[in-house]
Write a structure and sequence with these properties.
Strand content: under 5%
Order of helices and strands: HHHHHHHHHHHHHHHHHHH
Number of strands: 0
């Protein structure tokens, strides 16, 4: 596996090497071993973790290919015996990062097309989502290699226009889902309190609201102390605007008119939005360059390789986690009911839209079979076959949590992962230092800082609109 993951760093040393690699991977014994070890995941959670891990690995490889640092380390490990080159081209830098992320994006795009309309794991195509991990890894690596045969001009256009647009869509999508999560969390707690008169849920809701507001104000105070010194106009403006808009949105959430049209609106949602936007603002000012002497963290940590590596890995882990969460929230994105989170353990095929169905589908089928046997249309052993099928289904249901319906929209899942690869490529390559030779810091640019600052403002705007929309258009909302 280590050799496979190092393949993108080798970046097409020769055609003969590619052919020998392909031959070794496609050998019967190798393919059999891979497929045996990487079978079908019965748990949808395991599948999502696997795709998140794949994105994490791809992101780390992309980061390492920003500068020649990783390539020099790899050459040093081979005692300088291997001289890595891409047929006379650079194997690192802007284009190399775009190549690697384009490969994974193409991989997810193809899966999104192939998995259109999959309703449950009964569909044969579901195995493409949950299984064939060995072949899928090989296909991904093959795509990485093949991208080095595509002219650099393609990736220059791709990175400057297509990937940038996809990255902005990914950021916007994350903000929409955050606001949806805030409303869902508050409404869920209120439902528990109203239905069960639960003191525990009441304490949890009030405590979490106070805790998130406290964290928001604490981050604001810290930012004013450490990042808003004299001469740091950008930081002062960003921190002040965040504080003002935080107070405005909190006030709107409890305004009597808003409460009249949306009784479930309140400080709980505002607190979650506030703490997230305050975190974005703090992340922005703490990751900006220190050319104006406004970021003491960089001066305190210097440019030590260890701190940069840890920061990059944490960033990539965060991206992988948020991508997976976003990709599985199909309801918030308008996913249809067939891809909503289904209740595991319900009767297979039960029609949840009909409240007066007297029997389950399985019982109806058994009754129809008995009637057919009594009428002589079917042999008596048909009942035995039906029983064995039910037992087999029960056994498989115990392992497969998507047999009655997928837990998320497969195609939408891969589209969001496609957008995530564009975001990773854009984050890594904006304002890239072409003269750098050491390990590259991730997100330590004014571009990345402004993206976070503006994202916080957009998040406040989306949340405010979710509060005001029922007031302005009451006929479209059923509160």
């Amino acid at each position: 596996m280590g050799a496979l993951l190092s393949l993108p760093l080798l970046a097409v040393p020769s055609l003969g090497t590619l052919m020998s690699f392909g031959a070794s991977c496609c050998g019967a014994a190798a393919c059999s071993a891979i497929c045996h070890q990487c079978g079908v995941f019965k748990s949808s959670m395991a599948t999502r973790i696997a795709y998140a891990f794949l994105l994490l690995v791809n992101s780390i490889i992309s980061w390492l290919m920003l500068t020649p640092w990783a390539l020099k380390k790899l050459e040093h490990l081979t005692l300088d015996y291997v001289n890595i080159s891409c047929q006379g081209k650079q194997c690192y830098g802007y284009v190399a990062v775009q190549r690697v992320n384009f490969a994974l994006g193409l991989f997810h795009f193809l899966l999104a097309i192939l998995l259109l309309g999959v309703q449950s794991s009964r569909d044969g195509r579901a195995s493409l989502q949950n299984g064939y991990w060995g072949p899928k890894v090989i296909v991904w690596l093959a795509f990485v290699v093949l991208t080095f045969f595509i002219p650099e001009t393609f990736f220059q256009v791709w990175g400057q226009y297509v990937a940038l647009i996809g990255a902005m869509l990914f950021v916007l999508l994350g903000l929409i889902l955050l606001v949806d999560l805030a409303h869902t969390w508050a409404e869920y707690c209120l439902g528990k309190i109203e239905n069960n008169d639960s003191r525990g849920w009441r304490v949890l809701l009030i405590g979490s609201t106070l805790g998130m507001f406290t964290a928001s104000f604490a981050m604001t105070i810290i930012m004013y102390i450490f990042f808003a010194q004299s001469g740091c106009a950008m930081n002062q403006a960003a921190i002040t605007i965040n504080l003002i808009v935080l107070l405005i949105t909190a006030t709107i959430s409890v305004h009597p008119t808003v409460q009249e049209y949306n009784p479930k609106a309140g400080l709980a949602q505002a607190a979650m939005v506030a703490v997230y936007c305050s975190y974005l603002t703090m992340s922005a000012v703490s990751m900006e360059p220190d050319d104006q002497q406004c970021n003491p963290l960089i001066r305190a940590r210097g440019t030590r390789t260890t701190s940069i590596i840890l920061g990059a890995i944490v960033t990539m882990l965060t991206i992988a986690y948020t991508t997976t969460r976003a990709a599985t929230q199909g309801i918030a994105l308008g996913g249809n009911s067939s891809h909503a989170y289904s209740k595991i353990g319900d009767e297979e095929g039960e029609h949840t839209l009909v409240d007066q169905q007297p029997t389950s589908r399985r019982e109806m089928r058994a009754e129809a079979l008995r009637a057919a046997v009594e009428a002589g249309s079917l042999p008596a052993n048909a009942l035995d076959d039906d029983d064995s099928d039910d037992e087999s289904d029960d056994g498989r249901k115990g392992e497969d949590d998507e047999r009655g319906g997928t837990q998320y929209n497969y195609s939408l899942f891969h589209v969001i992962f496609l957008l995530a690869t564009m975001w990773v490529a854009t984050l890594l390559t904006q304002n890239i230092d072409f003269e750098a030779t050491g390990v590259a810091a991730v997100g330590r640019t004014y571009w990345a800082s402004w993206v976070k600052i503006v994202s916080a403002w957009v998040c406040y705007a989306i949340y405010s609109w979710s509060l005001l929309a029922p007031v302005m258009m009451p006929g479209r909302f059923g509160y």
